[in-house]
Specification:
The chain has a single domain (12-298), classed as Alpha-Beta Complex (Sulfite Oxidase, Chain A, domain 2). 18% of the residues lie in helices and 21% in strands. It contains eight helices and 13 strands. The protein binds the ligand Nc1nc2c(c(=O)[nH]1)N[C@H]1C(S)=C(S)[C@@H](COP(=O)(O)O)O[C@H]1N2 and molybdenum atom.
Length: 307
């Protein structure tokens, strides 16, 4: 069940830079209004988050690895770079535009987004096409809740996502080698699957900037790059939308990008993976181990062709 702690006072305001304090206060206010979850005074921690039955029982990867080994090309292509160069990324105020083939287009700020559904902790496997994997305790809610609010028209078959992009805040992006703003897409039925998560936190706290603050997508049966970070736009479309990685290299990256040990990337085998913090490689599982929940989405499709 959801619990709510009492409103904290802001004793630490004296030692918090003013801008940060105001942003944080705004954020806390939003959570209070939502009556769902509430961060403690100590930091931007969520409390009263529901534990999801959809979590894996596997041991989460260390907080250190989850937050210091990242792919976020807007902030540099080195794994250790985003944790450094995204430090001052401004994520408040934040708005997300919802548009396209929907009955109810709208612009939502983060406070409104946090009110859409109860926040859940979901511990998911996360596998990058590069061959490493992690287990991450995300906090978020099903994307389907937001989609229902938008009320897609019968013509809506896909959902397109766009990340924030500003070269002034992301000077490393010029060396990224892929088109920005970063864009991704899902088929509408994939987006509606109960596993598809809009994440706003990890390890009990608001998302660190390098992990895609203030909100990002998590699609656990697909390669990590489908998990678009720092989302500013969600557009419902009739046609399959372009995605950054297939625009950069269509032969190597397809629209679907389902984790599949039998379909190799042209440069990397996908048969095995190295879990962060472990020495021996383990077998990669079809749909990253989520086949029971998602295989039906692809019945009748040739996953070699639709990679
Ligand atoms: N905007 C944006 N989103 C992105 C990326 C990126 O470069 N830019 N990288 C993707 C890739 S390749 C992976 S593996 C995951 C990494 O998420 P993590 O750093 O939280 O583990 O984010 C994905 N989302
Ligand atoms: Mo990735």
């Amino acid at each position: 069940m959801i619990t709510t702690t009492s409103r904290p006072d802001f004793l630490h305001s004296e030692v918090t830079p003013k801008a940060h304090y105001l942003n944080r206060r705004r954020f806390l206010g939003g959570l209070a209004a939502a009556g769902l979850a509430f961060p403690s005074l100590a930091g931007t921690k969520f409390t009263g988050v529901v534990k999801s039955p959809l979590s894996t029982a596997e041991k989460p990867t260390s907080y250190d690895a989850v937050t210091k080994y990242n792919n976020f090309y807007e902030f540099g292509t080195g794994k250790d770079q985003p944790a450094e160069t995204a430090q001052n990324f401004q994520t408040s105020p934040w708005t997300v535009v919802i548009e396209g083939e929907v009955a109810k287009p709208r612009i939502l700020d983060l406070d409104a987004i946090l009110k859409i559904a109860p926040l859940e902790e979901r511990i998911y496997r996360h596998r990058c096409v590069e061959g490493w994997s992690m287990v991450v305790p995300w906090i978020g809610f099903p994307l389907s809740a937001l989609i229902k609010l938008a009320a897609p028209s019968a013509s809506a078959k896909y959902v397109a996502f766009q990340s924030y992009y500003d070269i002034r805040q992301m000077p490393q992006a010029r060396y990224g080698g892929i088109p920005f703003p970063y864009v991704e897409g899902l088929r509408l039925d994939e987006a509606m699957n109960p596993l598809t998560l809009l994440a706003v936190g990890l390890y009990g706290e608001t998302l660190p900037n390098q992990n895609g603050a203030p909100l990002r997508l998590v699609v656990p049966w697909k390669y990590g790059f489908k998990g678009i970070k720092s989302i500013v736009k969600i557009r419902f479309t009739a046609k399959q939308p372009p995605t950054s990685w297939s625009m950069a290299n269509a032969r190597e990256y397809g629209f679907y990008s389902n984790v599949n040990p039998r379909v190799d990337h042209p440069r990397w085998s996908q048969a095995k993976e190295r879990r962060m913090g472990e020495f021996f490689k383990r077998d990669t599982l079809l749909f990253n181990g989520y086949a029971d929940q998602v295989a039906a989405l692809y019945s009748g499709m040739d996953l070699r062709k639709d990679y």
